Amino acid sequence: MEKDSYQDHQTRGLQEKIPQLEYPTGQLRTRASLVPRYSTNIPTREQMSGREKVKPKPQQPDSIHCFTDGSKNSEGCGTGYLIMGENVKVYGTISLDSSATMFQA
To answer: Cα separation of 81 and 92, whole Å?
Structure first.
């Protein structure tokens, strides 16, 4: 049995059991209200001068450090990232299309 006909058969079975599925539907858009449960701290250059170097792994529990960098030259455009926490270590690079700007990197 083909996949499409199997899915159609399943749908028909549901429609027989739940006739309300045939009712007209509105064009409501999904809305999400997100409440951040985190804070972001980005010190200025002045605040960073004279301080110890920031270590990739945070000393505070339940914290993460996220480092990003991007660049563009005549050969291409790309970006890199490092995210570290108590039990988290994620890093990688992404090659971007040559039409990307330095700010998109």
So the answer is: 6
Per-residue pLDDT of 82-105, as tens digits, reads 999 888 889 999 888 878 877 776
* Local structure of 57: helix, strand or coil: coil
61-to-58, 78, 91 alpha-carbon distances in Å = 8, 31, 20
pTM over 0.70, yes/no = no
Q: What residue ranges in the chain does DSSP mark as E strands?
A: 64-73, 76-85, 89-96
Alpha-carbon gap, residue 83 to 64, rounded angstroms = 7
Task: Assign 72 to helix, strand or coil.
Answer: strand
Rounded to whole angstroms, the Cα distance separating 58 from 41 reads 13
Phi and psi, residue 73, nearest 5°: -140, -170
Judging by beta carbons within 10 Å of its beta carbon (0-12, 13-18, 19+), is residue 20 exposed, middle or buried? exposed
Between the alpha carbon of residue 54 and those of residues 43, 77, 83, 105, the distances in Å are 11, 26, 13, 22
